[in-house]
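Hey, can you fold this one?
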Amino acid sequence: MHRISSGPRVVLFDLDGTLVDSVELIVRCFQHTTAYHLGAPLERTTIVATIGRPLRACLEEIAPGRGEALYATYREFNNAQHDLLIQPIAGMLSVLPVLRGWGYPLGVVTSKTRVGAEAALARFELGAVLDTVVCLEDTIQHKPEPEPLLCAARRLGVAPEQALYVGDSTFDVRSAQAAGMPVAAVLWGAGKEADLHALRPTYLLSDPAELLELLRPAPRDSGETPVVGRSAGHALQF
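Sure. Predicted structure:
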């Protein structure tokens, strides 16, 4: 088992595809919206490739000049179907309280609006274990730019290299790398393993339990943090 001499001080998470399984909700919202406005539903693979980016920008790209109309239809359908279609990621809801119990401040960094993020967090009562939530409205630039992650690090009083970002998309990996932040890419969300691996994230995890192994406090006499999972490239020193 590879070991590093010190670990991250805080842990930040993406939301969609990382903490909650919202892929089916997103796909159905997109397909309902594009069928209504454009006459045919968008292909699932095209929709999944947008997950992690701001919604309004994606809809404007699909229908230039009509993005706001599509956004209104999307939000109406989302509001009606949200609690029926969104699901927790198996294992992740139990991971967060354990990390909090180990003393890690926790945060979420998402491209969702605050209304959308709070609805997802409230659905599974996650707000109580989080110390900060950075949403679309909190920064000018968005993933894959580094600004949202840098905002979260500032709020929690740490340097970027002292935080670990956990996300499922290439946008998450690129944002963390641009911020100078170690990143654990996860394989249980929307991202494809080959695409994530190609970006050489710090860690590549296939199961939420691996995150606990990665972050488990070391025995008091060792001074080291155990690291497991599949290292995808350079092992960054936190």
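Residues 33 and 74 are 6 Å apart (CA to CA). Let me know if you want another pass with a different chain boundary.
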